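Severity: low
Component: inverse-folding endpoint
Summary: output formatting inconsistent between runs
Steps to reproduce: submit the following structure tokens with default settings.
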């Protein structure tokens, strides 16, 4: 059993859930769908690493961690209901046994990134999900290429317009990261990365760094 599997099963069980091995098997199956390139277990692993590095500042780290595990479990490229369907997946497996299930669902919904979260736990979930924006330039580019690969339905021109809208909206915020800790860690580099990307047109790739 992999370290990630053991970590999830232990957390699921300690939170009140049952059938942890079956839950993880289904979760891993979904995160390894062939249409996925960015929204994979690799993304979740990085979210967990960032949670571990900010753990002491997070009010309810176990609840935040479960939300991070489940926030992209359902991902259909271009769909507008991925978060809601991820919530449904979580509720189906939790079956009312996890006391913090309502809060976990609220945090998953917050990863739509359409409204500003108000509770600290939600802010950490959202910030950690967006840590990619504040990564090293090479990593930022590689993740951009993975995100692009998930939208074969769009040609380069259409995807460029779509991505520009998304990234411009992040850049227009007073703060990309809501928590002071994540703001200090990633804000400056994230803004540099977004400005760099918006100054370029697709197709581009990691060799353009």
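Observed output (run 2 of 3):
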């Amino acid at each position: 059993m992999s370290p990630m599997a053991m970590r999830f099963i232990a957390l699921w069980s300690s939170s009140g859930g049952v059938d942890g091995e079956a839950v993880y098997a289904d979760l891993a199956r979904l995160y390894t769908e062939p249409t996925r390139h960015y929204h994979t277990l690799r993304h979740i692993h990085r979210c967990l690493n960032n949670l571990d590095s900010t753990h002491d500042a997070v009010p309810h780290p176990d609840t935040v961690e479960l939300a991070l595990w489940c926030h992209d479990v359902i991902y259909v490229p271009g769909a507008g209901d991925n978060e809601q369907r991820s919530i449904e997946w979580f509720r189906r497996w939790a079956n009312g046994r996890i006391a913090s299930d309502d809060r976990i669902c609220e945090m998953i919904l917050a990863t739509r990134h359409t409204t500003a979260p108000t509770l600290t736990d939600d802010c950490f979930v959202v910030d950690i999900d967006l840590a990619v924006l504040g990564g090293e330039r090479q990593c930022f580019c590689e993740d951009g290429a993975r995100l692009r690969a998930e939208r074969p339905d769009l040609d380069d021109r259409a995807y460029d317009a779509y991505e520009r809208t998304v990234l411009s909206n992040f850049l227009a915020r007073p703060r990309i990261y809501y928590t002071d800790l994540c703001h200090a860690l990633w804000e400056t580099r994230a803004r540099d990365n977004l400005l760099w990307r918006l100054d370029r047109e697709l197709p581009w790739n990691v060799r353009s760094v």
